Amino acid sequence: MDAMTIPDVWSGQDRALTAADMENMPDDEFRYELVEVASPRTRLYDRNRKKDIYQGFGIPAYWIVEPSRDRLELTVFELCSGSYEQAAHITGAEEHRAAFPFPVTITPSQLVTAG
Questions:
Q1: Of 34, 49, 55, 92, which has the fewest Cβ atoms less than 10 A away?
Q2: 60 vs 71: which has the higher pLDDT
Q3: How many structural domains compose the chain?
């Protein structure tokens, strides 16, 4: 079988998942994500209920990208003692250098292309 099954991916994980792992997820009724992109329709759900659900499951980091032509935003939450705490909030051309959950530098204005 070419695609991983859910147990293959989630059970006994001794490494962080990668974008390649996400691309190889099975094509089923479930949705798998690495970074959350908010939409006007789901903004309240993403910032409240979904964040609470992820926190309850012990997901170590939750990032929300707020797309806007005027000002892109990134809000980073990290799990600390069982609760999410805001670790960063950056906009536009500001950089966020994350070490957790993996090393990456994010600049919100570079997440979309003009056009």
A1: 49
A2: 60
A3: 1
